[in-house]
Amino acid sequence: MEKFKAVRGMKDLYGEELRKWKEIEKVCMETAELFGYEEIRTPIVEFSELFERSVGESTDIVEKEMYNFVDKKGRKLALRPEGTASIVRAYLERNLYQERKIARFYYYGPMFRYDRPQKGRYRQFYQFGIEILGGSHPFFDGESVYLLFQILKNLNIKNICFEINSIGCSECKRRFSSLLREYLEKYKNQLCSDCQRRMEKNILRVFDCKQERCREIIKESPKILDTLCDGCKNHFEKFKQYLEFSSIPYKINPHLVRGLDYYTKTVYEVFAEDEKNAIGGGGRYDELVEQLGGPKIPAVGFALGMERVSEIYRISERKKSSIYGIFLGEEAKKEGMKICEKLRKEGFVIKIDYEDRSLKNYLKIADREGEEWCIIMGEDEIKNNKVILKDMKSSQQYTLSYQNIVEEVKRIIKC
Ligand code: AMP
């Protein structure tokens, strides 16, 4: 029978890569907690409509990339393509806005998009993200960037640079859309069919187009920053001031709009090291809570892509050394298990191979699998209340007394 394969665009995590991920997760969560963020875990499955109404029906994510399905009761459901919509849904459903003026959440988990798999782009990918709900001051936008910057610094990631822009409030977006339409009308025949459709349905989405010719045309288009109302201009200025006094490296990218409809005012992406793709992105979404049926509550947040961070992250801790338990015969296996229990209580990692093998065979396996230490017990050792500890690198053997096993192993392995 042919072997099963993982679904295209989805990968297994194990070994050193997973150890790396766990270090990154820890830094992300601990840093966010220092800023007063609390974890929130929402289901992976939501009603498709939640994303249609928030991310936007004419975005690539909803239009082309969502994993939609119908359940046994005929409900239209989706695997979440991003985290923000679910958090706003939970925030409203659980009335969390009545508990706190400013709610700060972080989340972590898999997201699903039927994208074309390539380097840094998967169909199941993980995001660590934060949301601040209830704050309208531009310094909240600043805090979200600052926290992302701190996380990346704590991960020892170099060459961090934020690209920022403002797409304005819904009024600014409307005004800019008609300006853009006027400009694009001249090139309509040269635009791809997707962009021609976008022009009718949701013109800002032309900025997401990856076709060369469309990009050239869009490059020369009017800039939204030049058309912002005074309120939005002022917001952007204050946001930039925050970045400056916090020494956060940034540049303005006047074409940055992000691929989700709910953004208003500030949008940003972060790049680092020599990774071409953005490793994270975020922005303000002042109208989403209301759009999903709640009160008028401003908000801002970001999401960081784990796969992309892990590509540039250098693991800091070596794999924890473990002891390989070799117990020859039934009696030794039973005694050995008691020794292992004592050592595990002290934090030693011990693996036992219960298979009946010769000592030579056991040692060959331990050597091949890179084990650093072996603890060996056979009939003679049981008789004399002794245990052997073998350093696999130097081949040195220590005969230890059963009574003081923990102290002696600690002394030799030094941990
Ligand atoms: P978005 O949710 O589109 O704002 O993306 C935020 C971050 O998630 C990006 O900067 C990427 O790091 C990551 N990301 C988005 N889509 C994918 C994907 N298909 N595969 C891997 N990472 C992704």
- Fraction of helical residues: 25-40%
CATH homologous superfamily designation of the largest domain: Bira Bifunctional Protein, Domain 2
CATH topology-level name of the largest domain: BirA Bifunctional Protein, domain 2
Q: Can you list the strand order of the major beta sheet?
A: 1-5-6-11-10-9-7-8
- Kindly estimate the percentage of residues that lie in beta strands according to DSSP: 15-25%
Radius of gyration: 28 Å
Number of strands: 16
Tell me, rounded to a whole number, the average pLDDT.
95
- Ligand kinds: adenosine monophosphate
Shape: elongated
Q: What is the number of domains?
A: 2
Structural class assignment: alpha+beta
The major sheet is characterized as: 8 strands, mixed
Identify the CATH class of the largest domain.
Alpha Beta
CATH A-level architecture of the largest domain: 2-Layer Sandwich
Unreliable segments of 5+ consecutive residues:
none
Q: How far apart are the first and last residues' alpha carbons, in Å?
A: 47 Å
In DSSP terms (H or I, runs of 4 or more residues), the helix count works out at 15
In short:
This protein is α+β, with helices and mostly antiparallel strands and 415 residues long.
Search tags:
415 residues; alpha+beta; BirA Bifunctional Protein, domain 2; Rossmann fold; 2 domains; eight-stranded mixed beta sheet; five-stranded mixed beta sheet; 15 helices; 16 strands; 39% helix
